[in-house]
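Hi Q.,

Before the meeting this afternoon, I wanted you to have the iron/sulfur cluster prediction in hand. No need to reply - just skim if you have a minute. The sequence and ligand are here:
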Amino acid sequence: MSTPPDPCATCGLCCRVYVVPLVGRDVWRISTRQRLAPEEFVVVYPNPPGAIDGFRLAPDGPLYAMALAKKGRYARHRACVFLLELGGGYSRCGIYADRPDACRVYPMVSWEGMAVQRKDAVCPPGAWTGAALRDPSWRDRLQRMDMDMDIYNEVVARWNARVAQLPAGTSLPLAEFFSYLLNVYDGLAALERTLGEEILSRVVASWSTLPAAADLAAAEHEPDRFPWLRYLQRARAVINRFYPEVPIQRPFAVIREELLARRRP
Ligand code: SF4
Ligand code: SF4
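Predicted structure with the ligand bound:
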């Protein structure tokens, strides 16, 4: 069976309209494979007051998120910094093999365990055929995006716990956060190489952000039934090697759920 043509090869419409969010693994992948410093392609911006996610640079400062830079001065509807103009109205991604998770899953979202096309997708009419939309790799990519977000939250939680120990009124430079990201993801990449592709694909396929208490207990005795939990434990061991003076935190997904529960009426 022939592979359907890739509608993204010369399109790039979505690359002109969105703020592309980044997690730590995106920054590490682009930085190491494209040999770019994070400062060359990442913009950071404060999350709204009351947000739970994000990294701090000062104990009493805001939580920040990361996004891909745009060409020229940052503005939402400018083209992505990596978009290549081909002439004749065509364009394509200049880092396609290393593009962030958010680009890898577009135009799909998860819905009741399935990958479905976004209703607001900006793709040209007819760009995606039924066969291309049913490709099982979409679900794999969506699962991997969830996993990368959860691991990034763990990475950030360790950094934030360290920042919380700073004296009030002091802050750390953004470059130090980027340096931490690159180092911690070097360690996580080594973990993935140790596991190998087959085990890693089982981890991704079984990823499930918040462990039920029963699953946590069962995972102690039947680790093979919960490959994602085993991975989470091992990834946390890698992350916890950084800043040994900072106490080990509980899994961020559990803390996050408690914070959200307190806010529910
Ligand atoms: S995902 Fe859609 S809008 Fe984006 S490049 Fe591909 S076809 Fe174009
Ligand atoms: S990284 Fe590539 S796919 Fe993603 S927005 Fe930029 S140009 Fe488009």
